[in-house]
Structure formats: C-alpha cells, structure tokens
Amino acid sequence: MKRYFIAGNWKMYKTIGEAVSLAADLREKLAGCGEKLMIAPPFTALKAVGDVLAGSNILLGAQNMGPEELGAHTGEVSVLMLKDVGVSVVILGHSERRHTYGENDQLINRKVRLALQHGLEVILCIGETLEEREAGRLEEVIRTQLEGGLAGVGIEQLSRVTLAYEPVWAIGTGRNATPEDADAVHAFCRRVIAQLYSQEAAASITIQYGGSVKPENAAALMAKPNIDGALVGGASLKAESFVPIARFR
What we know:
Helix content: 40-55%
Distance between the termini: 12 Å
Mean pLDDT: 96
C-alpha cells in the first residue's frame, strides 16, 4: 500500500514552549500513523522539539539552511548545525525563500547538493506564480526549477529527494489548485524527471502538494495518482487540523 509523506512547515511561528507543546501533542495523537511524518519548527526550537520527538514516528525537519558548511556567514545556519540537533530533512527552495528573499535556482541547488552530501533528505519546493500560470508559462517555470535545483544530483541521490509542488498563488491564501490541476502538474514533474533520470526514477520519486492543504481537501488530493503527500503550512500549526490531514484515510 502506498505510504504518503505528510510534512508540516511551521514557518516563523511558535516560541520554544509553544513548539514543544504542539510536538508533544502530535507525538501522542499520531502514534501508530502509517504515513511518513515530519514537522519543521523554527530554528530556535529545533533542539527542544527534537528531544520531544526522539524515538517517535515523526521526523525532525528544518525550514532552510545555508549554502556553506561553515565560515563567516552571519545569520546563516549550516548543515552541520542542523545534523547536530537531530534534523534529518530540510526544506529548500520554498516559494517564500524564492520570492521574498530572492533565492535563485543556483543558490538553491548549492544547498540541495550540500544537504545530500551530508546525508540529509531534501524537500525541494517548486511552483509558479499566478502571473506565470496565466501567461501560459507553468511548464517552463517548473522545468527550469527542476533542472536548476537538481543540477549535479546523481540518480543514486534522488531517493533522498522529495519534490513539493506549491503553486505560489495558493499558499496562505485559502485558495488551492483543484486535485485535478495539482495532479496534472505532478504528472508533468514526473515527465521531466524521466527525461533527466529515468522512467523508474520518475515513477518512484515522492511528490507532495503544498498550498492551502486542509483536513477538508486532503483526502481528495491524496486520491490522485501522482500526489504522494502534502507539505502543510498553516494547518500544521494546530494538532486539530494537522492530525486529520496526516490521518486522512
């Protein structure tokens, strides 16, 4: 039976105390859940949340990382620091990093390759803006982001890469792509992966949907053949909304 990857991105929310409380609640309520689960608290709460999750079925994720192992990089957090506090998955290329902080495919690719080099799993986010979609550039944008983000990533490393399709216009807006729209883009991603790697790689790669995923639409999204999970934003900030998404079936 297919195992889905449900991940929560807490963004810039939760003090350490709040994060610990939510993590403990999720650990209890998601015990025995058969899906692959991850939560990504803010950097300040990683160690405390990691301690809460130790020995559970929930992976500890980070929301970003710097492109260098160490050095004079004020304000950055390195892959070595993330590993030191127990992080096993890192989200890279999120639309907010791309559009608010100006990260391009080349910078994101440096981070992807560094994370993989150090044994972390990567969630590589891709997605188009409303303007790009309306201009008929959806496939061009997605292809460029995939080719750029995965440059230099070998097929042997691809098993540790999850793609997350997140239409920028659906993030935090309450709007979401229909399950049919999302599945069509996921299918296109698989075609690109087949061209870059192989048909087998395209069939096996995990592709999450992200963009206003809620308990009300999770099951319909997961029912689509090319959707393998969800990268959940706002609905991951409360157990009463994240738990039913993770237990959608």
